[in-house]
Write a structure and sequence with these properties.
The protein is built from 15 helices and 45 strands. The strands form 10 sheets. Strands 26-25-23-20-16-15-14-27 form an 8-stranded parallel beta sheet. A 7-stranded antiparallel beta sheet has the order 2-3-4-5-12-11-7, with no helix packed on it. The protein is an alpha+beta fold and 760 residues long. 23% of the residues lie in helices and 29% in strands. It is globular. It binds ligand MIG. The site of ligand MIG has 10 residues, from loops.
Length: 760
């Protein structure tokens, strides 16, 4: 890692958790001054030339790009997989326009990766105020970074492959948190389930229909007048009872928590915050106030530890009734209006109207109103509206909000995690956040906000989530079925088939739109939707093992094709298919009416998991009837599956290793208790099981084993697919009894037999 500092940073970093002691990163790096800047080399190879200049608001940094290089990352931007030839703003806003013209969006993650066959590096620009990154509009062959401050901090990462870059980046900014098992299952949400009776009815419907589901989500209407940390007495008279009931059905509850605290004497969260001086102030020293759902609100100052402690305490108390997860919304922070500018806007518009200047009134309204809602929603070029508030750091120093705007939600997430630690020490936490800054992966899962029930939004979710993974944030999802507008039956089926492979899998929709629980369209649609959800639960052993891998090394759960096939030029731009882990290729259907689709299969042979056919690499047309999402297993790859249960926390019983062996394929079997942090202390089970071809023999070996936990499965089935060469299956020289099922050869054995083979 190479650290480049321009000027002198005024504030500490919020993203960085551990910086290696030496910041130039050893011998591999070489920085050479040239005529108007520097050239950066890694391992003898030139990465780029860089120039440092200024622009009206601060430092400008530009570096070269080669003609065939691609750009990835930059968080959840509404843009294609390859981010090159675009301009991006970094300023968290509640963006309701999900279109390229709607940039910026909710999250700001100024980390990007430049890649082409044989070359890859990453750059992280660590500044949480306003930032602009141009990936090739102003100059085809350059990245231009403009920092809204007179200083800049950059980290450059290099390595042999993409994963080394992500490893180094997540070492610097924090490893992805390990979620509890239930959070990896299916989630059902709605804005809003309006009463505890309705919540229970929805939960019961899942169980009655045997559709797996791990959590029900409560949106803002559970609260009393949108006051944070309260429950509506009419609609949710007995939250504790409701949650106990849900827990007895093996369902968890996640509640939304916005960030604005209603300004109201007598409301405990307000009173306590005033007492502790925990809220943001204006430059004049008054409480800073902005209008959100409850009316005028004040906002916690998460910069100082006392503000974070205030929040953690409130949250922990609130969670006491048994809430399992927290959903942080509106935390850009999103503010609908600010009182003073709003009043002056109204006054000005009225004045002009009285003067009969209708056009002037209209213009004033148009521009002012767009600015007033600037923190909520801005279009490109309108400018990012500042929130005129002041933070205090722990030494009592003042920090303007605009200097740390993008880090506000990150600090809120830190405080929220502290709340979990108070409420339930030793257990894993679960937070979903809308707004974020670099480093968010160590604290929370993210979703892409208010998309629409639209085929285009469904398709773009793939590059959005892939790029979040390449920005160090593996646990990400988009609202399945679409948030705004009305879903139709076919879209719900196809979106659930895609969502089953989102790392975070939640169906959510807005007030006033068509309901979209799995059963709402009746048969045959509800069966297709249910089957897609079950598919997720079949794949849980494999997907869960990808989460632990992400936690250890920053490897994304879902990956673009080039991550695994960096020598394959075509795989750098394919964005309508992706890999789950290293071995499973998913090619979802993204257009209405399609019953087949083109699929690009990179570099090796692939096994069609529906037909059992072996396919050569290249472009193929594959069947995709409405009840099927095309899936392919990589040659020398493996996936681990189980029978679907109603919840992800139920023991797996039997796991099946599906392998397609050319020479040798390995599967990882991983399990832990799914809810405590004990896995960090070695309380987990892990085995690497490999199957190698030796002539007509398939030889099974356990290559690595960690037995710190008794796994929730006792039988392992090994299913050899696409391998007509198999005559015998051997374990430790002994031939196993096998049976044939279709084209597959299957061996079954007890977990004890398998693990004893390695120990012996
Ligand atoms: O202004 O809480 O993105 O998921 O349902 C809308 C209501 C506020 C925005 C979130 C959405 C949530 C909604 N919220």
């Amino acid at each position: 890692m190479l650290k480049i500092v321009v000027g002198s940073p005024r504030l500490r970093s919020f993203a960085v958790v551990s910086e290696p002691p030496c910041c130039t990163g050893g011998d591999a790096w070489r920085v050479v001054e040239d005529r108007d800047g520097v050239e950066v080399y890694w391992s003898g190879r030139k990465l780029f030339s860089m120039r440092i200049a200024t622009w009206e608001r601060g430092v400008e940094i530009a570096h070269t790009l080669e003609g065939d290089e691609h750009v990835y990352g930059l968080g959840e931007k509404y843009a294609h997989l390859d981010r090159r030839f675009k301009r991006f703003h970094f300023w968290n806003v509640d963006q309701t326009v999900h279109l390229p013209s709607g940039d910026p969006m909710y999250k700001s993650i100024p980390f990007y990766i430049v890649a082409k066959p044989g070359k890859v590096y990453g750059v992280f620009v660590d500044y949480p105020g306003y930032l602009y990154i141009d990936t090739g509009v102003e100059h085809l062959d350059r990245i231009v970074i403009r920092v809204g401050a007179g200083y800049a901090v950059l980290y450059v990462f290099s390595g042999e492959n993409l994963y080394e870059i992500l490893d180094a980046y997540t070492r610097l900014t924090g490893r992805p948190f390990m979620p509890p098992k239930w959070a990896v299952g299916y989630h059902q949400s709605r804005y809003s389930y309006a009463s505890q009776d309705e919540v229970l009815r929805v939960a019961e419907e899942f169980r009655r229909r045997r559709i797996p589901c791990d959590a029900i989500w409560l949106d803002i209407d559970y609260m009393d007048g949108y006051r944070l940390f309260t429950w509506s007495r009419d609609r949710f008279p007995d939250p504790r009872g409701m949650i106990e009931k849900l827990h007895s059905m093996n369902m968890r509850v996640v509640t939304i928590v916005d960030v604005g605290i209603k300004e109201e004497k007598g409301y405990h969260a307000y009173d306590r915050g005033v007492e502790l001086n925990a809220f943001l102030r204006t430059p004049d020293g008054e409480l800073f106030r902005g209008g959100v759902w409850p009316g005028l609100c004040v906002f916690p100052d998460f910069l100082r530890s006392s503000g974070r402690r205030y929040w953690a305490q409130r949250l922990a108390e609130f969670m006491g009734v048994g809430v399992d997860g927290i959903w942080l919304d509106m935390n850009e922070p999103a503010i609908f209006y600010m009182e003073k500018p709003f009043r002056s806007m109204v006054a000005e518009v009225s004045k002009r109207l009285i003067e009969n200047d209708v056009e002037g009134a209209g213009n004033h309204y148009f521009w002012r109103a767009r600015h007033l809602i600037g923190t909520t929603s801005v279009g490109k070029g309108i400018g990012m509206v500042d929130i005129p508030a002041v933070h205090l750091d722990d030494d009592g120093g003042e920090v303007r909000h605009s200097e740390i705007h993008n880090a506000y939600p990150l600090l809120e997430n830190e405080a929220t995690k502290m709340g979990f630690e108070i409420a339930r020490p030793g257990r894993r936490w679960f937070i979903l956040t809308r707004s974020a800054y670099a480093g968010i992966q160590r604290l929370a899962a993210v979703w892409t906000g208010d998309n629409q029930s639209d085929w285009g939004h469904m398709a773009i979710s793939i590059p959005m989530l892939l790029n979040l993974g390449l920005s160090g944030v593996p646990f990400a999802g988009a609202d399945v079925g679409g948030f705004g507008d009305d879903v139709d039956p076919e879209m719900l089926v196809r979106w659930t088939q895609l969502g089953a492979f989102y790392p975070f899998f939640r169906n959510h929709s807005s007030k006033g739109t068509r309901r979209q629980e799995p059963w709402v369209f009746g048969e045959p649609w509800s069966s297709y939707v249910a089957e897609a959800i079950r598919l997720r639960y079949r794949l849980l052993p494999y997907i869960y093992s990808m989460f632990i891998e992400a936690h250890r090394s920053g490897k994304p759960v879902i990956r673009p094709l080039f991550a695994e096939f960096p020598q394959d030029e075509q795989s750098y731009v394919v964005e309508d298919e992706f890999l789950v882990g290293p071995s499973l290729l998913v090619a979802p259907v993204l257009t209405p009416g399609a019953r087949a689709r083109a699929v690009y299969l990179p570099q090796v042979r692939w096994l069609d998991l529906w037909s059992g056919e072996v396919l050569e690499p290249g472009w193929r047309l594959v069947e995709a009837p409405i009840d099927r999402v095309p899936l392919f297993l990589r040659e020398d790859g493996a996936v681990v599956t189980t029978e679907p249960r109603s919840s992800a926390t139920e023991p797996w019983g039997t796991v099946t290793i599906d392998v397609f062996v050319g020479r040798k394929a390995c599967a990882v079997l991983y399990d832990d208790d799914g809810e405590t942090a004990d896995f960090e202390k070695g309380r987990f089970f892990e085995a690497k099981v490999c199957i190698e071809r030796r002539g007509g023999d398939a030889v099974i070996r356990v290559e690595e084993l960690h037995m710190g936990y008794e796994p929730g499965f006792s039988k392992v089935r090994i299913r050899l697919l696409g391998s007509p060469w198999v005559e015998r299956v051997l374990l430790e020289g002994e031939e196993l009894r096998v049976y044939r099922s279709g084209k597959a050869v299957v061996a079954e054995l007890g977990i004890g037999r398998l693990t004893a083979s390695q120990q012996g």
